[in-house]
Amino acid sequence: MYQVVVDYAPSQADNAVVSEGIIAFNESILGERDKEFSIFLKNDSGKIFGGVQAFLDTESIYIDTLWVEESLQKQGYGTKLLDAAEQEAIKNGGAYSTVDTWDFQAEEFYLKRGYEKLGEVKNYWLGHSKITLRKKLR
User: What is the pTM of this model?
Assistant: First the structure.
């Protein structure tokens, strides 16, 4: 017999079982798992002030996270990080870049860099909308 169990403090191992299960299913249809990579904005001491966390497959890159320290925003660092991620995609044969953002985050940032809005889930969380954007890279 099986039970549905709610766990507010799940172990990483338990979460990994669920993640690996869906990844294995996806791979059975889509092929090999996406490559995960990061790009960092560091100072001379190696301290991180921004970065990108992304997934790369044969057709596209998915920007999971792009962050720049608040004091360094609006100085071009976000663009440099995004450009670096897009170049990795192109170098590996990717044709698209996809990203999700919130209505209070970076929609305009991506639109100014050639991304097109694919969709929006209004009132997704606490009255805010989640927005998906995509850019053709080649």
Answer: 0.82
